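Q: I have 90 residues here and want to know how they pack in 3D. Can you give me a structure?
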Amino acid sequence: MSTFSGDLLRVVSSNMLALLVGLVNGFLVPGFLGIDEYALYKTFGLYVGYVGILHFGFVDIWIYCHSPDQFCDCGFLEVVCHSHVGGSFL
């Protein structure tokens, strides 16, 4: 198979799998769960979706401060890593 047709087949198959998972989540899961359980399930999914956005870069600063190699000579990160508040928090 050529590269284009192989890539196209991968994209189409992954989209079909995503569609199948979406249909199962949309039609079968609510049938097995009650209204309250399904509401908690969807709320948990919402929280999990926002975790990656709302960590405000604390993990990135922690990795920067505790890595053996310094990534850049940024003044702000040096202050955060070595300040009293940043040092005790991170």
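Q: Anything worth noting?
A: Residues 20 and 26 are 10 Å apart (CA to CA). Residues 3-32 form the longest helix (30 residues).
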